[in-house]
Specification:
Blueprint: H1 2-11, H2 32-43, E1 50-53, E2 56-59, E3 78-82, E4 87-90, H3 96-107, E5 114-118, E6 139-143, H4 144-164, E7 179-181, E8 185-189, E9 192-199, E10 207-212, E11 217-219, H5 238-251, E12 255-257, H6 266-288, H7 293-303, H8 305-308, H9 315-328
Parallel strand pairs: 4-5, 5-6, 6-7, 11-12
Antiparallel strand pairs: 1-2, 2-3, 3-4, 8-9, 9-10, 10-11
Helix pairs in contact: 5-6, 6-7, 6-9, 7-9
Length: about 325
C-alpha cells in the first residue's frame, strides 16, 4: 500500500516531490449499498444530488483515493448554489467528461445556467472538469498561486489520470481560470453573500475556503475533512493549518462541505485540530530529543489510537505517514 501511494505521489502534482491529495482508501464491497450506488452513478447520465440547505446542493463521490478505471477518475466532491439568475459551482471534477456529467446533474435541479465556477485549489481532481464550463458567460475563479500550479502541472495531471484510469477519463482540455482572487474577498452573487478566505501552506498553494455567512455553510475543499484524516501534504505548515481551522470554528458553521466525504459539522473541525495539535506537539518534542519516527509512532498509538481510530476511516493506515511527514517538516 505504501509503495502504491508513493508512486501516486510521484506522478501526480510535482515532478520530483509530489504531494498526497488522496489517501489510499476507497469504498469497497463491505458496503454493498454504496457499491451499487457507485456503479449506478458511473454508468448513468447524471450523479446523485444531495440537498444541504436552501438552494445549496452537493454531488458527493463515493470513491476516495486513487483514480482508477472503475471510478473513471471521479474521486472528489463538488457543490453548487442556485441563485436567482444562475448557479455558483464549487469545483468541477477531474476530467472534462465528469464536468459535463456535473453540468447535466445541475440541469436536473435547475434550468438556470452555471454562471460562476470556483476552483478551490490546483489539484487535478478539483478543476480538470473546467472545460465543460468553458462558456464565455461563465466566470472561473481561483487564487493566483493555484493558477500558477495549474499551469505548471496541468498537462502532467492529464497524462497521469489517463494512465491510471487506462484512458477512461476521455479527452480533457485544459481550461484555466480567468478571474483571480489575491486576498480575502466579500462578494454578492445575485443575492447570495459569499466570503472567500485564502490560505497558504494549508493543503496546497493558494487554497480557497468559501463561507456563506447568511446560510452558515462553509465550503472547505481539501482543507476540511469529514470521514478521513486531514489531507496534509509535503508543503503543509501545520501551525498555519491549525490556525485556519480555529478561525473556521469561530465562524460556527452549521454545515461543513468538504472536498472528499460526506457533509459534516464543526465537531469534525475541532476533532482535526485536536489530532493535528497532539501529533505535532509530540513529533516536535521527540524530534528535539533525538527520537526516531518509529518511537513516536508507538507513543501515538498508545495514547491517541483508542480515541481517534473510531473517528476516521483511515486512521490505522494513515497515522504513520502523518508522523513521518511531520518529522520531515522539523528541518
Amino acid at each position: 500500500m505504501t509503495s502504491m501511494l508513493n508512486k501516486f505521489l510521484f506522478f501526480k502534482y510535482h515532478l520530483s516531490i509530489l504531494i498526497i491529495c488522496f489517501l489510499c482508501f476507497s469504498f469497497n464491497n463491505k458496503n454493498a449499498k454504496t457499491g451499487k450506488l457507485y456503479k449506478k452513478e458511473i454508468s448513468s447520465e447524471t450523479f446523485n444530488v444531495i440537498r444541504d440547505a436552501e438552494n445549496i446542493y452537493s454531488i458527493v463521490s463515493p470513491s476516495f483515493g486513487l483514480p482508477t478505471p472503475e471510478n473513471k477518475g471521479w474521486n472528489s466532491n463538488v457543490h453548487f448554489i442556485v441563485t436567482k439568475s444562475g448557479v455558483l459551482l464549487f469545483d468541477t471534477g477531474s476530467s472534462e467528461s465528469i464536468g459535463y456529467k456535473i453540468k447535466r446533474t445541475i440541469a436536473s435541479v435547475t434550468s438556470l445556467p452555471v454562471r460562476w465556477v470556483v476552483n478551490s485549489h490546483s489539484h487535478a481532481d478539483h478543476w480538470l472538469g473546467n472545460a465543460a464550463f468553458a462558456d464565455t458567460t461563465t466566470e472561473i475563479i481561483t487564487s493566483k498561486h493555484a493558477l500558477t500550479e495549474m499551469k505548471k502541472n496541468g498537462n502532467d495531471d492529464i497524462t497521469f489520470y489517463n494512465k491510471v484510469t487506462k484512458g477512461k477519463i476521455g479527452s480533457t482540455r485544459l481550461v484555466f481560470p480567468s478571474s483571480i482572487i489575491n486576498n480575502n474577498l466579500k462578494r454578492n452573487f445575485d443575492g447570495i453573500e459569499v466570503e472567500f478566505i485564502l490560505t497558504e501552506e494549508n493543503h496546497s498553494a493558494g487554497d480557497i475556503i468559501m463561507w456563506l455567512p447568511n446560510h452558515k455553510v462553509v465550503f472547505g475543499g481539501d482543507i476540511l475533512s469529514s470521514d478521513w484524516m486531514p489531507v496534509i501534504t509535503d508543503d503543509v505548515n501545520i501551525p498555519s493549518l491549525i490556525n485556519t481551522l480555529n478561525s473556521i470554528v469561530e465562524l460556527n458553521p452549521t454545515k461543513v462541505l468538504t472536498g472528499h466525504g460526506n457533509a459534516t459539522t464543526v465537531k469534525s473541525i475541532v476533532r482535526d485540530i485536536n489530532l493535528l495539535s497532539s501529533v505535532w506537539k509530540q513529533v516536535k518534542l521527540d524530534s528535539e530529543n533525538g527520537s526516531k519516527p518509529e518511537e513516536t509512532l508507538l507513543k501515538i498509538k498508545a495514547e491517541l489510537e483508542p480515541q481517534y481510530k473510531l473517528l476516521y476511516k483511515n486512521y490505522t493506515t494513515e497515522i504513520e505517514r502523518f508522523i513521518n511527514l511531520m518529522y520531515s517538516l522539523q528541518n
